[in-house]
Amino acid sequence: MSKILLIDDEPDILEFLKYNLENEGYQVITGTDGQQALEKIAENPDLIVLDIMMPKLDGFEVMERIRSDKRYKDIPVIFLTAKAGEAHEIKGLELGASDYIQKPISPKKLIARVKANLKKSELISGKKDKLPEKITFGPIEIDRKTFTVLVDGEKIYFPRKEFEILFFLLSSPGRVFNREVLLKEIWGNDVYVVDRTVDVHVRKIREKLGKYADMIETIKGVGYKVKSVE
């Protein structure tokens, strides 16, 4: 039975979503603010459904703390928000959110997204024994076991999706991957995200790579590839 941590400061919404998730067989832990989210994550949920606009700590602040803790950095997080707007969504994705749902929430949509994100998380975990744990390519060392990236020996923090994209590209240097392939491999078939999401994540990866940003080459109209550093 998968365990869901559900955080929302509106009691009616919280109980409504909890009821529907429990009817699907999930174990649900609830909280009503950002502080409770950080306290209850110690119960090791398999997935977090996190409201953004909350007292004490908002969802973005909670997300930053989760992703900075190596114990919880791989837990998929679905953001809930009443705010519309691309900038708001992009911020959540940049922080490492797995998905994003705008209120009012359809229980069927939420359950579908929960199932898709849990499935993706399980697939990633299941592949760990088949893929190399560590890749060294030029100045970059990337280790999936410790979830670390070293650039010229300096440790650089990458949120989960950025880490997965970088690892995926470095696994096949020289090969061009279009956005559809990257979306499928990193987010899965059942999670709807737009092509722009890949571009946002690649931009953030390049920023962190600094003088080696050009290692990730854009193939206009196609996608991305890793090229050697001269």
TrEMBL record:
Domain Response regulatory, chain residue ranges per copy: 3-118
Chain residues forming the annotated DNA-binding region: 132-228
PTM sites of type 4-aspartylphosphate: D51
Pfam families on file: Response_reg, Trans_reg_C
Record-annotated OmpR/PhoB-type domain positions: 132-228
Cellular component terms per the entry's GO annotation: cytosol; protein-DNA complex
Any Gene Ontology biological process: regulation of DNA-templated transcription
GO molecular-function term, one example from the UniProt record: transcription cis-regulatory region binding
Organism superkingdom: Bacteria
Keywords, in A-Z order: DNA-binding, Phosphoprotein, Transcription, Transcription regulation, Two-component regulatory system
Function: This protein is a positive regulator for the phosphate regulon. Transcription of this operon is positively regulated by PhoB and PhoR when phosphate is limited.
Protein's name according to its UniProt entry: Phosphate regulon transcriptional regulatory protein PhoB
Organism: Ignavibacterium album (strain DSM 19864 / JCM 16511 / NBRC 101810 / Mat9-16)
